[in-house]
Each structure stands twice: as C-alpha cells, then as structure tokens.
Amino acid sequence: MKKNSSHQIAHILIEALPYIQKFKDKTVVIKFGGNAMVDEALKHSFARDIVLMKLIGINPIVIHGGGPQIGKLLERLNISTQFVDGMRVTDSETMDVVEMVLGGQVNKDIVNLINIHGGKAVGLTGKDGDFIHAKKINLQTSSKEASASEIIDLGHVGEVSSIDPAVVNMLCNSDFIPVIAPIGVGNDGHSYNINADLVAGKVAEVLKAEKLLLLTNTVGILDKEQQLLTGLSIADTEKLIADGTIAGGMIPKTRCATDALKGGVSGVHIIDGRVEHAVLLELFTDQGVGTLLVNH
After folding, report:
1. What is the count of structural domains for the chain?
2. In this structure, what CATH number is given to the domain that contains residue 257?
3. pLDDT digit string (tens) for 27-62?
4. Could you report how far apart the first and last alpha carbons of the chain are, in Å?
C-alpha cells in the first residue's frame, strides 16, 4: 500500500511538471469568491495554492468579491438594500460600507491568510496607484407596463473604463502577490463598486495573462443533462447561451470569460471553488476540476 501510495505521489508530481514549465514566469489572474471565501478549510487551501504558484515562478494575481459580507454588515447597520438585475443599488452610505468591507475586512483577511502560509501579499483597491478607472453604470430596462425603456440609477455601481497596471507590475516583479478589491474611481473622484468577475477579466486582458481562473459554487458549465463540459470555444458558448443551456448567473460569467479570450488571454477556467486545492488541480493536472474556455 505504501509503495502504491509513493508511486501515486510521484505520478502526480510528474504530471504537474510540463504545466509548471509552461506557466513559469507567466501571469495567472484568479477571481476568488463563493464558498471558497467563507469555508475555513477552503480559504486555507486556496492561500497555500497561491503561495505555491509564486514559489515555482508563476505570478498569481488575486481579485476578490465580498457580496455576502457586505450584506451582513448592511443588515447589522440597518441599511436597507435593493437589487436590480442582480446588482446592488449603491448610494453614498452603502458605498462607504462597501469600501470598508471590500477594501478593509475582506481584502486584509485574504492578505493575512496568504502571508500566514509563507507568501508576501499586498492588498490594493483600484484607488491605489491610480489603478482602476471606473465609469458609472446606468441600467436600461424595459417593462411590460412601461411604454418606453427606463433608466435606473444604481448609484455607485460602475464598470471598468481603463486600467493602469504599473502598480501591479511593480508588485509582481518584486515577489509580492497583489490582492485586489474591485473598487474603481471615476473622473468625478467618486468610488464605484465593480463586479469582481469583470475586474478580473479586464486585469487579465491588460496584463496579457496566460490564464484567468473564475472560482464558482458550481462544477463548471453543464450541458442539458447536467454533465460537465470540460472544453469549450467562444463559438460553443454562444450556441449554449442561445439554446438556453447556459442561463442565469452563468451568462455574465461566461461573457466575462469570452471577453477576456478576445482580449488576448490564452485560456479561461470556470472552476469549482468548493473543491480543496481547486486552483492547483485545474492548472497542474490533466483532468482539472472545471470548464476550460479557449479562443478557437
């Protein structure tokens, strides 16, 4: 049994070798969210994955969300929340809470976890180093009752208008691991809350990342029989969206992935963040733990 176990370990290491060689000196952007952010064992396994990546010569960049944590604090402060099409309406008071939670509590927790496991992480928001420029989103909706489309003001909800990667490049080149909260600043000087998937995609594009990994609470993209689809092209995803196979919250995640591919990212992985060491399993094994999307 011990001999078989040793052979198994050796096989795993040998299987990982070509991937390690391929990704050395390359940038990998990881969007950290879902169960992986709240389950203690998963949080620690994620941090160890990130530290190992850095030690073997890969440049990991972590971008995180924090919706549930924001919701909990708003509830404790008796600040009511309204959602429109899955987006939180964010007035000035709510934005203060968003910045406290994303740029403070959540960001520093992740930084601390990575550092505990031997890494050198540095927390950022889009305000640091003039990093993420944002523009306000105004949502346009059409209801059956309305005779014309309606513009809904979401407050401090934004999208990425541009990214200056200088501060991230400086950190990566100095052996630090950037951990980024998805807050941008507008030309008006106001802070804007941006969807973390979108920020991860844009950062991966601008840095010409080798890989973008999106951690989710599902096994990946499923077909109509609920079987995992392991490899998809941009054309495949368009067909799956059109026929309703990809639906709901997976649509914006898939669109984010295809936009990143069109922007020059080599591959995007939508992976199951509920699996311990999901990042290492997806990057360094033949089988992986999710769906790989490629630009062909």
Report:
1. 1
2. 3.40.1160.10
3. 999 999 877 788 899 999 999 999 999 999 999 999
4. 44
